[in-house]
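Support request, please re-run this one:
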Amino acid sequence: MEQRDPRFKRKVCNLRPNAVIQKRSMALRIPEKLLDLIRSHSAREYPNECCGCLVGKEVDSVKEVREVTALVNLRGRSARADELLPLEAPDRESERNRFLIDPDDLRRVEQEARRRKLEILGFYHSHPDHPARPSDYDRDHAFPWYSYVIIAVEAGRPGVYASWMLREDRSAFDAESVEVAGSKTRDDAASGQAPEAC
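Re-run finished. Output below.
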């Protein structure tokens, strides 16, 4: 199902057209080796934001990530990015503090996931030299239900990460519990504490 969004010049896909927004909290389960891939991607792209998809299945209110797909931050290709979604303040915004996923890349990932009976569970991106908390810009460009993993990268070194879910009314993000498979601890945002809503 496609719909028009006034912020975009093109149609946008409703990635999860039959989704029922859960009222209860969910958890994101991700293997340590996939979390390491996100860390490596964020370090490689520093000082720019990296981005990618979380692919897997929802099982008993747990989003089980089975693979991560690193994508190109289209903000580094300004002509294509401006064609899709121009920056509101180009003097203050760039690939260092914004990311944009090419809709063609997203469709490709979604089609491949569906072919294997998986789905896009969410997205990840880095915050270079900034906390792992969603910004207003992140909220304005997010959808409810999906997990949004944000990893802070300080001076090129990946650090704290957290997962967030946008409320159905789009008013704020709530922290989502992260279970790291292959790790001895359950991680509520990598710091041992669940962050507050933002």
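Residues 2-187 form a domain with the Cytidine Deaminase; domain 2 fold (CATH 3.40.140.10). The helical segments are 32-45, 78-84, 103-115, 136-140.
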